[in-house]
Design brief:
The protein has 284 residues and is an alpha/beta fold. Helix content is 44%, strand content 21%. The protein has one domain: Alpha/Beta hydrolase fold, catalytic domain (Rossmann fold, 3-Layer(aba) Sandwich), CATH 3.40.50.1820. α7 links the parallel β7 and β8.
Length: 284
């Protein structure tokens, strides 16, 4: 009889626990990034994009303040990463407050790898398995539609724009800076795909600085020590070339992330890149 009572008591406790758990599930809410909102926007190409906009904590309380702005690629993956790093670095007063605009896509069950390959590569490579070479059109979209929309709706300091990205996004960030130097005077290239199309960006770099001797910018380029050896060689050679130019107007930081491969190098790269890109206007 005692055993039966124990069993009944345990069953009742289990039922009560399940009821409590079920009740708790009804209170589950979706987690959202702080100070973040999204805007859907269409390009003339027909592609539907989404802008992930992260505002400074002080934005609502300082209606007369205009903020620097960072445009970054791959927001569908990296918005949580950039949001976390930003809040921590602002807390440490390592960077100024600024607005972040993450470039993403709108829709369900999207193939981000295919979409980003097309948008972030400046030239077409017929030997590559995915479609490529849409970088010029994507940059035109950013310049002609995204930036005007952001600057008409948010209090942006138009003299302080940065562009950032990882892998193909890092390649695109460098391409965008060279192609439209009046748009971006700060560039963060995390593990950029320098070897793309037989080193296209190297050739672009050479031609750019022959014609733009007074170009002024802050540039950050990084890679991980555990990345593909050929990839590392391409990035490190590019880093050395830019460094050896000894251009006084280009404030360059070359950075190596120890013991990290391609994706693992991203958080460390962005943390150091954000600090370097805004170092001249960081809080006192």
């Amino acid at each position: 009889m005692t055993n039966l009572r124990v069993i009944v008591s345990l069953l009742l406790c289990s039922l009560l626990s399940l009821q409590t758990f079920a009740h708790d599930l009804t209170d589950v809410k979706k987690f959202e990034l702080p100070y973040t909102e999204k805007i859907s926007i269409n390009a003339s190409s027909g592609t539907s994009y989404e802008l992930v906009i992260s505002l400074p904590a002080s934005y609502q309380n300082l209606p007369n303040k205009h903020y620097p702005v960072l445009y970054y690629t791959d927001a569908y993956w990296d918005a949580p990463l950039l949001s976390s790093l930003y809040l921590d670095l602002v807390f440490d007063r390592a960077i100024p407050e600024f607005i972040m605009i993450g470039l993403s896509y709108s829709g369900e069950n999207l193939n981000y790898s295919a979409l980003r390959t097309k948008d972030l590569t400046p030239t077409k490579d017929a030997t590559f398995s995915r479609d490529s070479g849409g970088g010029a059109e994507f940059l035109k979209f950013i310049k002609g539609i995204v930036i005007p929309k952001i600057e008409s709706q948010y209090r942006v300091d138009k003299s302080q724009r940065a562009i950032a990205g990882w892998s193909f996004g890092g390649l695109f960030a460098l391409y965008a800076m060279y192609k439209e130097p009046q748009l971006f005077n700060r560039c963060i290239a995390i593990s950029p795909a320098i070897g793309w199309d037989d080193g296209f960006i190297n050739q672009m770099d050479d031609g750019f600085f022959k014609l733009n001797k007074n170009f002024s910018a802050r540039v950050f380029i990084s890679h991980g020590t555990n990345e593909n050896p050929e990839f590392i060689l391409a990035v490190s050679d590019f880093q050395k070339k830019v460094e050896n130019r000894k251009d006084r107007n280009v404030k360059l930081m070359n950075f190596t992330v120890d013991n990290m491969a391609h994706a693992g190098a991203k958080p460390f790269g962005y943390a150091h890149g954000l600090i370097w890109a805004w170092k001249d206007i960081r809080p006192n």
